[in-house]
Design brief:
The complex is a heterodimer of chains A (344) and B (590). Chain A has 344 residues and is mainly α. Chain A is built from 15 helices and two strands. Chain A has helices at residues 3-34, 41-56, 63-84, 91-111, 119-130, 133-142, 150-172, 196-218, 220-230, 232-237, 242-264, 274-288, 294-314, 319-325, 327-337; strands at residues 186-189, 192-195. Chain A has a two-stranded antiparallel ribbon. In chain A, helix 6 packs across helix 11 (242-264). The longest helix of chain A has 32 residues, at 3-34. By secondary structure, chain B is α/β, with parallel strands linked by helices. Chain B folds into three domains: 33-239, no CATH class; 337-418 and 507-590, P-loop containing nucleotide triphosphate hydrolases (Rossmann fold, 3-Layer(aba) Sandwich); 428-506, no CATH class. Chain B contains 23 helices and twelve strands. In chain B, the strands form three sheets. In chain B, strands 8-9-10-5-11-12 form a six-stranded mixed β-sheet, sandwiched between helices. A four-stranded antiparallel β-sheet of chain B has the order 4-3-6-7, covered by helices on one side. Chain B has a two-stranded antiparallel sheet with strand order 1-2. The longest helix of chain B is centred in the middle third of the chain and has 27 residues, at 202-228. Chain B is elongated and about 90 Å long. The mean pLDDT of chain B is 89. Classes of the chains: A mainly alpha (344), B alpha/beta (590). Chains A and B meet through helix 7, helix 12, helix 14 and helix 15 of A and helix 4, helix 5, helix 10 and helix 12 of B.
Chain lengths: 344, 590
């Protein structure tokens, strides 16, 4: 391996690592606020990438139907609750938000030809289609069992993951997609060529991390989420609704996932089930941070990206074996470091 | 719990049906039953791990893969007899499961399943990429099994072997769960604090149950390899591992028979969906996973105990009584002389971050005396209990118990020396009967292993442990509730169950955290009487209590705490006259 290859692999590793870092942050956030280990995080990546690819191919992305179906299901549940409570005046708003908005989106997609739209609009449409799935998922799958044990919530997560993967196959088929590069620009730094695409991913990830930081530090909702993560009961006593915190953290997770999908779509061919492995690599990063520390999770995720890049050079068949076996020394290290005390 | 109707009627009917099934059913259905049996073996392990032990794993398919690949490799490459590759596969699996368990089980519960996901993926890719294991095409030409001279070639031949092994494992699992080690495993679900305070080595119990579940999976994998006569990575993927968990949850994750039910339901449903869904949707693919996923979510929302308890309602439940006639009592520990110092706490401090909950507190408890620790709420009394009993160790200071330094020992080691305790917030296993809860207290007084329990070589000892539990329950006035689920008792009575559990440990020092809270007047008097009798026997008692009438009428000496510090100490009548104490309780006059 000469320096050139080493740098090239490093570039690859950091690019993927940046995306794993985003996912790791989302996983830590969701776990801290809701105690949900969000296995389906990766599906948002795949759905984001494949929805963008569908739009660019001029097809109506299947996520529209998922959005409509989940919106209708939530609408039905909320309407039943409202009728039982005899609060009929709430019905129009419920129907408008849960069924009307997705219908409007579907209708506008049918009315224009998405392939001809500028890239930025396509990306925005993708986010509008995929991000709402986050809070909808929380409402349907997690909110009814929000007080269950971490273990039960984890099993729900796995069930959601399996369902979404199946739905992904149904909507996008078994073939993978790859979108054209956002930019062809290249920068030469000495002997090394930096691809514009790589820079874009790193800069976008960094911007998103800064935005998240500002959200948590400067906004009321961000602070409410931090409060919930620190002490659920205490936050609730201060008037922060657990459901709101859940919906908010899942919205952020959905947004981070979909955005990562958009970023990754020109770099690699994404299949309906690619998201799972991508998300799990975020998990390995998050576990390096003990599912608690944001900077450690991000650093861990970049490490995973680098390890993956270099192991694909040395032993490409064993790339996944190496990346996922890394978790065992990490867990051992964490296990020796922590002394776990239950609340007495 | 044994159900007599279940044991005498339903089980024999089930076994007879199993025996005649191959003679009546077409080949296809026998094959299906073979698969159900293989899956049920893995699921049984998961039931024990998840439903009983409160842990879980998505990597069971990978463990089955270890069993299958070990036998496939050794029989085809080295010509080893399949009957020798079974123990070899079990050994490989045990080594992997034990190391994975050791790595994760000290961490919080969710790191184990996350570890098994990663490990399931990594092993799948390892199977698929190792040239020695045939890569993604796998290993063909695995020899059939022979039993003496009889060769098991067809599915029908295999059927009896699979189901005999499954039923034997179910029996062994039920035996194990209904034993001292089994109760320790069941106690894991309630968190490790209580179990550790009763002397259970919880990391060991977790590793045992994890390893046993992995070994069941390896047995299933071994059978699979010789039934199929070839192996490839697909059936050992993470997807299959997840499906096993679905089987356990749908069938009934806390019930051994739920394993067969879940394996049966999911396998049949899968067959059916794989026929229909592609036709319905007009494309081919694993669309049954959508249905399974949704089904799981509904089950977890609406019926978290799965389908088995729904069926169970159709036959009467009979409670098993523990025979106490002629059962010899357990040996008692020799108590120190009355008046000897049992417990000496010196300069004990405990900080939670910046909060000093205990600040250099010192006191002694002697054998044969009742010493009360009182003080307003938040004075640090329960923190002191946790520090003394090793549940949440002190930041600094010394604790000697019977002349031995214990402040840095784990709770279970301190329990072994003869200290036993109750908890302010009751820590019982609500679904278990009172007698089983109390028997956990006697954990350290038995020594039979889980292997002895699985083959019922522990019955004498177990009868003695249960007899001891029954004696302590009667002592605490709970004879009529002995076989009721502990969670159905009123809170005051649950505290009495905690006392009975502590007594079952045969302690020489008893730590009681608010034992009289929630008791009625008559019950309080009975409790005071019991404590006086224990004192007369020479047991030392350290008591935290808010009911002053109860404390002052009972205690020999009193220590008062306020804001983490010792405020006063002395005889009850001195304490009642102490102006500082009066001010702490009633507020001063400005």
């Amino acid at each position: 391996m000469d320096l050139q290859i080493a740098l090239l692999l490093g570039q690859d590793g950091v690019t993927n690592g940046a995306i794993y870092a985003l996912l790791a942050l989302a996983l830590v956030l969701v776990f801290a606020v809701t105690r949900v280990i969000f296995i389906p995080q990766g599906e948002f990546v795949a759905f984001g990438a494949l929805t963008l690819a569908s739009l660019q191919a001029g097809k109506l992305p299947g996520t529209v139907w998922l959005l409509l179906a989940m919106g209708t299901a939530i609408g039905l549940i909320e309407c039943t609750t409202a009728v039982r409570a005899r609060r009929f005046h709430r019905l129009p708003l419920i129907i408008l938000i849960n069924c009307g908005a997705p219908l409007l989106l579907a209708a506008s997609l049918l009315a224009v030809s998405p392939a001809s739209l500028p890239l930025l609009v396509q990306v925005l449409l993708t986010l509008m289609l995929v991000v709402p799935l986050g809070p909808m998922l929380y409402r349907l799958a997690y909110q009814p069992v929000a007080e269950a044990s971490v273990l039960a919530l984890l099993i729900v997560s796995v069930a959601v993951h399996v369902t979404l993967t199946g739905i992904g196959l149904l909507f996008f088929g078994a073939e993978g997609s790859r979108t054209p590069a956002f930019t062809d620009a290249n920068f030469a730094v000495g002997d090394v060529v930096l691809q514009g695409q790589t820079l874009l991913v790193i800069v976008a990830s960094a911007l998103l991390i800064v935005a998240l930081y500002l959200f948590f530090e400067r906004t009321l909702y961000g602070k409410a989420l931090r409060a919930t993560a620190m002490n659920r009961t205490g936050a609730r006593l201060m008037g922060i609704s657990g459901d709101l915190a859940g919906l908010l953290s899942f919205t952020l997770a959905g947004a981070i996932g979909a955005f990562s999908g958009v970023l990754i779509s020109p770099i690699t061919t994404v299949y309906y089930d690619s998201g799972f492995l991508i998300g799990l690599k975020g998990f390995v990063g998050a576990i390096i941070g003990g599912l608690a520390s944001y900077p450690a999770a991000a650093a861990g995720a970049v490490l995973v990206g680098l390890l993956e890049a270099y192991s694909s050079y040395w032993a490409s068949a064993f790339k996944e074996v190496i990346v996922f076996t890394l978790i065992i020394p990490v867990l051992l290290w964490r296990s020796l470091k922590t002394r776990h005390v239950e609340e007495a | 719990m044994k159900r007599s109707l279940h044991a005498t009627v339903l089980l024999p009917i089930f076994v007879v049906l199993l025996l005649v099934a191959p003679a009546l059913l077409p080949e296809f259905h026998v094959t299906l039953l073979n698969y159900i049996g293989l899956y049920a073996i893995v699921t049984l392990g998961l039931v024990m791990l998840t439903g009983v032990g409160g842990l879980t794993s998505f990597g069971q398919a990978a463990f089955a893969g270890l069993g299958a690949y070990t036998t496939a490799y050794l029989t085809t490459v080295h010509g080893v007899s399949p009957w020798l590759t079974l123990p070899a596969g079990l050994l490989v699996t045990a080594i992997v499961a034990l190391s994975l368990g050791l790595v994760t089980l000290r961490l919080s519960g969710h790191f184990l399943p996350l570890g098994t996901i990663a490990w399931g993926i990594s092993l799948y890719y390892l199977f698929g990429n190792l040239a020695a294991l045939g890569g993604h095409t796998g290993i063909t030409g695995v020899p059939p099994l022979h039993i003496l001279d009889f060769e098991l070639r067809s599915g029908r031949d295999f059927y009896y072997l699979i189901w005999a092994i499954l039923l034997a494992l179910i029996l062994a699992t039920r035996n194990l769960l209904d034993s001292r080690e089994g109760r320790a495993i069941r106690a894991l679900k309630g968190g490790s604090v209580m179990a550790e305070a009763m002397g259970v080595n919880t990391p060991r119990s977790k590793i045992v149950v994890f390893a046993v579940a992995a070994l069941y999976a390896a047995v299933s994998g071994w059978l699979y390899a010789h039934l199929q006569r070839f192996v490839n990575p697909t059936p050992f993927s993470l997807t299959q591992g997840i499906e096993y968990l679905f089987m356990a949850v749908v069938g009934g994750v806390s019930h051994v028979w739920g394993a067969i039910l879940g394996a049966g339901l999911i396998t049949v449903l899968k067959q059916w969906l794989q026929d229909w869904l592609p036709r319905l949707l007009g494309q081919s693919g694993n669309f049954e996973m959508i249905v399974f996923g949704l089904l799981m979510i509904v089950v977890l929302h609406r019926a978290r105990d799965g389908v088995w308890p729904m069926l169970q309602r159709f036959w009467p439940q009979e409670v098993r009584r523990t025979p106490t006639e002629g059962v010899p009592r357990l040996a008692r520990r020799s108590l120190p002389e009355p008046g000897a110092v049992l417990l000496e706490v010196s300069d004990a401090s405990k900080c939670f971050g910046g909060l000093v909950a205990n600040d250099r507190v010192s006191f002694r408890v002697r054998a044969g005396e009742i010493m009360a620790l009182i003080g307003p709420n938040g004075a640090g009394k329960s923190t002191m209990f946790n520090g003394i009993s090793g549940v949440d160790p002190l930041t600094s200071g010394r604790v000697s118990f019977r002349g031995q330094r214990v402040e840095s020992l784990p709770a279970r080691r301190i329990a072994r020396l003869g200290m036993s305790r109750t908890f302010q917030h009751v820590r019982l296993l609500p679904a278990m009967s009172v007698i089983e809860n109390v028997a956990i207290g006697a954990h350290l007084r038995g020594r039979k292993s889980f292997i002895a329990a699985a083959c019922r070589a522990d019955r004498d000892e177990d009868a003695r442990l249960l007899h001891e539990a029954a004696v302590q329950i009667e002592r605490c006035g709970l004879r009529d509730q002995m076989y009721e689920a502990a969670g159905t008792l009123p809170l005051g009575r649950q505290r009495l169950v905690e006392i009975a559990r502590a007594l079952a440990a045969d302690p020489c020092l008893l730590l009681l955290d608010e034992p009289a809270a929630g008791l009625r007047y008559g019950e309080k008097q009975a409790l005071a009487e019991l404590l006086r009798r224990l004192r007369a026997e020479g047991i030392g008692i350290l008591l935290v209590e808010h009911d002053m009438e109860f404390v002052m009428g009972l205690a020999d000496r009193v220590v008062v705490m306020e804001f983490g510090r010792k405020l006063a100490a002395g005889l009850p009548e001195e304490i009642q006259r102490n102006p500082a104490v009066v001010e702490a309780y009633l507020g001063g006059v400005e």
